[in-house]
Amino acid sequence: MAIAAPRGRGPETVLLEEMPENAWTRWALGRRHSETRSDIVLPLVLTRGPLEMRAVFRSNVNGRLRVSLSDTTLAVVSVDAGGWQRRRLVASGPASLGDERLSFTLEPDPETSGPSPAFELRHVGVRSERPLFLGPRVLFALLALPLVPAFLVDVGVKSRRARGLLLAVLALAVLGLARSEPLLALIYWPQLFALASLGVAGALWGRTLVVWLWTAFMAAEQRYQTGCPRVAAAVLVPLPAIVVSIWLAATLDTQLLKFSPATPNDEILYWHETATFARVGWSGGYYVVKERPARWSVTHFGAHGPAFPALYGLLGRVLGWREFSGPLFHLLFLAAGLSLYAFLARPSPVGVVLCAAIVATFWPLILYIPSNMQEGLHFALAAAAAGVFAALLGSGGRLGFAGLAALGLTATYAVLLRPSWSLLVPLLILLLPLPARRARLFGFALLLATAGLFWVFVQAASPFPEGGFLFVNGLSNPALLVGNARSNLERVTTGNALERAQWLQCLVLVLVALWRLVAGGPSERRTWAVHLGNVGVLAPMIVVFYTLESGGAFRLLGVGLFLSLLLLAADSSTVSRRLVIALTLVQLAVAPYFSQALTLRARCFPRTPERVAAFRNSVGDRLRYAAGRSPWCNTLVAAHYPYYFREFVAVPAGIGLSMMLGESGPLRSGYVLLDLAAIAATPEATLRSLGGEAFEFNHPGLAPVRLERLAATNVGSLYRNRDLACPE
Length: 728
What we know:
Number of domains: 4
Strand content: 15-25%
Structural class: alpha+beta
Radius of gyration: 30 Å
């Protein structure tokens, strides 16, 4: 049973008396002698939570033994000269731990005299409340070990190139083990034995089994030449839910029904906007920045427009809207999008396998399903769009009049949801099966409609200050676009492993598309033109008009890449299938880094809801929505970072959330959340008592405003704006 980390105190040292041996992931280090310092590279990934270690050591002097992880001290224990000592160290571990250096440093007492200080470690153990996984380097090494007996027995690899590649993989595996922990085999010998046995079995009988399976598979491929949409739908529809559930259980020991939006700021904003639409429709308070509403007074929603909260809010009216509803709705729309893809693209058996591999290993998809961000819906739209393009290219089914009408409505909604979907409109115009003259007229009308939808989005979304969205305000400031593109290009090469892998996939896809446009036939060129017009246009547009910080490009570019991968899987050409396999292997190569990234979602799966419950109890019924009064009277403005707190899920639906105070003039929001420490740190900002619970608030750029304190919460003090004539 794991021991919880002590609260409110630093690392604690406990003398070990009874400790079950089977509860530990151990390093059998043998005896490692050191004068004053010994370092061990931990080949593990610790998902989260308290870290507990056991060390058995001895020293020839009295003093202290400092245990550090990289540059962070975990514990300091006293040591006595003499025999072996056993210590259990309890401390809060980092959010993720992979191939990091665990250091034991001997600090002898100042009055120590005699022999040179030295100590000796016998073994070290590590455990945690959360699972421990092998780090990327060691994971690769262990997975490559079955190749050793396969190489020795000879699997029939005759070419020098194949043997050289096999030897290179083995060399990398050995290097990975050597750089992590040479005696790792002493810990994982059962697993290594099983892997070696699999390698021998594969060498002896694997080739026959592969030939038999390949023959059966090719027979199915010939039988279902027109595709197997029912099989594809049966495989793809439940797959995202299964994969996400496995990852959450293995990495965070949780499930989707325990989700609660907790990532500032967009995730909490989307959740509360949807809750408001589900309850009061268009009559809620304002979701704005610096109290600047949209140009159209009918919509009170934020800078991303009303499309997302309106759709999920309508569904929430029917099915209910709870903290965990967002991920479930994502899965519902993904099921619809993948079903449309299955019946429009009609992938063959090989295509079904490739599609399943794409869905199961596409990390942006798996990462953003357990969230309340828009991406779950965008991935569903990408799956449906891949089916539409496959049908228009002739590799899948056909679109009738009803299909074209549904396509028009869906495209309209997609552009209102995120204007970047308009980049696909020219591709649709080129592929629609219409006579030349009618196609030109229809295409011109479609481009005008797209421009009109873009204008509607700008009018319906509240403005975002400080430059706003660059695709709205950047065209009038070329220098701003150039500076943004320069910083984004630097980020491409310095981002995390998942981001760099995604950019590599896009680059490979664009290069192959350019190659096939030159060397391919007419029908093949149409297919690769779609990929070039999708990823080849979306990627540079993101670099110029968006920001790569905080995973922004990872989300947006992932949607376009997902569309192209599904479209490639529906294509029966050898080039497309080999490209899908290559890009999927890139995904698999960064799987350990995805595991670490998923641990950051732990905040959305709280073990205890005390913070939200404390906020709800503090506020009570003092913060409430009232129908019929001004939307500003139903708006709460948060004046301190991060503005949208996870506690805001307890704010009543219908109350709008405004970020930051207004730029000038009187305060417009009916409720104000202030942090007294933040006010004290702001020059010229004061909160002067007028007696009782009444205060006068002065802030740079604002007219003085009278406030009445309603409650003190765990994220600041809640006030009512007494200068705003709001009925009680």
